[in-house]
Amino acid sequence: IKYSRFLWSTLGNLSKRASVRQLHSKLSDNNPYIKVSKEVKEALLYRQPVVALETTIYTHGFPYPDNTALASRLESIVRTNGGIPATIGVLNGVARVGFSAEELIELTASAGRPETRKVSRRDLPYILGLGYAGRRLNGGTTIAGTMVLARLAGIKVFATGGLGGVHRGGENSMDVSADLTELGRTNMAVIAGGCKSFLDIRRTLEYLETQGVTVGTFSDGREGRVDFPAFWTRDSGNLSPLTIKDEEEAANIIRAQQGAQISSGLFFASPIPAEYSIAKEKIDAIIAQAVRDAEESGSTGSDNTPFILNRIRETTDGASVVANRALVESNVARGTKVAVHLAKIND
Ligand code: PSU
Ligand code: MN
Fold first, then answer.
1. Cβ distance 143 to 180 under 8 Å?
2. One of 41, 118, 156, 196 is an active-site residue; which one?
3. Peptide bond into 65 cis (omega under 30)
4. Which of 135, 207, 331, 345 has its CA at a distance of 20 to 30 angstroms from the CA of residue 251?
5. What gap in Å lies between CA 134 and CA 92, rounded to an integer?
6. What contacts 24+ positions apart, CB below 8 Å, involve 238-243?
7. Which domain of life is it from (predicted)?
8. Minimum CA distance residue for ligand 1 atom 17
9. Distance between CA atoms of residues 220 and 338, nearest Å
10. In the chain, % of residues over pLDDT 90
11. What is the ipTM, given to two decimal places?
């Protein structure tokens, strides 16, 4: 009995390995649009905990050279916590899953140029199609864009800073981030610091519910239900639909979702470490001003989020950047722990 159990599990692992291999040979042999690095390919093949990282935060969030430092720092945080980082973006017209150190510098150094695009799901065919034809643009992928590419590669866990959402007034403008619909259709766990309160958090949570997205917040030892965090503050005035005890619990939930073959995504919010959180009244006033400025300048659509983030950075004289960085780092460490637990129970 022992022997046959061993045989079955070996066969099972071999077939899972074969399916990952098939996936990758499809991607690398026939697909000129997306290149998966050797390290990430091998990590997936051997079922190591791979963590996807997005790049809009480098091309449209942090200025150069802070963004370069952050990009390499986040990759080392994944490694220190036992994972393999898969930074995802578009370099010279080709989608990348896994960057070399030099390639990361090339992408982050191109931040702020008009030829460096913000790439969500809808933008992928454009930038990759032009790239194939010889017009090689760079692109930072948003959470939605990153999820599309990560899923193609077979990655299950993705960690980042802040989620897009329903914008204030979104019930009229219909400005709802494609991050939310992507979570509704792509099977992946995203770990982030909630969403910034320049968005309408209440409607964002409603929309995620409509999309069938499992949404939980890590309780960090707090009792009872906790708020869905608003990035710089742990409390947003909106209760999180679910409370998550720890990374192991998150991994169990992800595994159950895979087992039940539910093809939508999961979102785990990780509140900002208390020592970095900014007082709610203070950040509220700054955000209100930034939202007014965006309205006045006519920054709508995909320009809205980068404009507001930039205004907040200017008015807090860079203090927001320090908190921002601390939070992204903490999310990535936590996301990696989730991926490590998931790899363990998926064995
Ligand atoms: N929120 C942040 N920081 C960010 C973003 C959002 O606090 O960097 C970026 C992410 O890449 C997110 C994208 O996926 O903006 C959402 O943009 P939009 O609202 O246009 O979908
Ligand atoms: Mn939008």
1. no
2. 196
3. yes
4. 207
5. 9
6. 238/201, 238/202, 238/205, 240/215, 240/216, 240/269, 241/205, 241/209, 241/215, 241/216, 242/214, 242/215, 242/216, 242/217, 243/216, 243/217, 243/219
7. Eukaryota
8. 164
9. 14
10. 86
11. 0.99
